[in-house]
Amino acid sequence: GQARRGERRVLDASSGWALAALLPIGYTRTALPAYEKFAAETSPLPFFGYTAVAGFGGRIWVSAMATDRPERWLARSFDPRHLQRLVDQRLSQSPENRVLRQHAHCALDYQCPTASNLFFGRWEGAIAVSGGCNARCIGCISKQEEDELISPQDRLPFVPTVEEVVEVAVAHLTRSPNAIISFGQGCEGEPLLQARIIEKSIRAIRERTSSGVININTNASNPLALQRLYDSGLDMLRASTISARPSTYDAYYRPIGYSVAQVKQSLSQARDSGVFSSINLLCVPGLTDTEVELEALVELLRETGVRLVQLRNLNIDPEVLWPRLPDDCRPGSTSLGAALGMSQLVQTLGSSLPGLAIGSFSRAVRRWPGGTRADPAAGAPATAPAPPEDR
């Protein structure tokens, strides 16, 4: 608790349970919940983004800040009864398309927004292509090597054909003026392992339509493969990272055959090719916002010309994450410096990199001669906002 003058004090509790919040999408947490682990045999918690909760003034508060407008991602935008009808209708039209069947499963069973959008015919739609991966992320949500860690969803069990991909993509891109198709989804591994299929698909898509935006969500581990995608007509790249520092990055991603150096090269080539690039920053208060991590992040963004930072709460039990990181990457380590706070991180990014956009979601941005610009139907990408107040 907190006394009148602001000092902390321990409050006696007669009974009750530990409490944490799961935030609405579009909010970034600023503190982890306090806890004490009593038994070594305690089972890991499910893969959620646990956030600190407090009582103040007779109300419940969470430690978070608004970082984007969530309207297109809220549950009320996805009526399940309407979705079921649309899925049935679409599958009856293309019963043999395995990409559609996969994303019908994701939409109905996992309530995946991007999978659902394929059937609603709007916004950002999913296309999964790869069951394999060249990383072994601690927090992977589709495949875990350790028996005690349970993935919340299934991994894609097949490799689609170019024809299956193109059928789904063209239908989606031509139904909405600001539509996006995104390779790289939660139900798959690393899409660049199927770069040839993606490359052929992009070329075939652009032979049929110039509408919409083609994006890839990736670990950006293969600059050569990505360059082929840039040359074939890819509009946007979103590279996932937890850190710009090799020690932290390697400990979390456990990459196979690549490193942060390849990620930086891929982002730099995107800039040079006129592809709009962003990073999907997996955020953990007490790690992401430390002095050393923030300094390395600013350097990476400045060096590569990244245009947008998407803040993403890392969904993981802290007691799963911390023991799997080296000592010098754990919160409280003197080698990381002080934890500045997530609000300060946002403020520092905005002041250090004028014009950088900060949010939580992808924005539709088309490639144009001489560079990139926002799709006119989607509006211009936002610049870095003033840091929102903690809520």
Shape: globular
| Overall pLDDT level | 90
Largest sheet, if any?
A: 7 strands, parallel
Supply the number of structural domains.
1
Report the sheet-strand fraction. Answer: 15-25%
CATH superfamily: Aldolase class I
- Strand order, largest beta sheet: 7-8-9-10-11-12-13
Q: What is the number of helical segments per DSSP (H or I, 4+ residues)?
A: 11
List the topology elements.
Layout: E1 21-22, E2 27-29, E3 50-51, E4 53-56, E5 59-62, E6 64-66, H1 80-93, H2 98-110, H3 113-120, E7 124-127, H4 162-173, E8 180-183, H5 195-208, E9 213-218, H6 223-232, E10 236-241, H7 246-253, H8 260-272, E11 276-283, H9 291-304, E12 308-313, H10 318-321, H11 342-352, E13 357-359, E14 365-368, E15 371-374
Parallel strand pairs: 7-8, 8-9, 9-10, 10-11, 11-12, 12-13
Antiparallel strand pairs: 1-3, 2-6, 4-5, 14-15
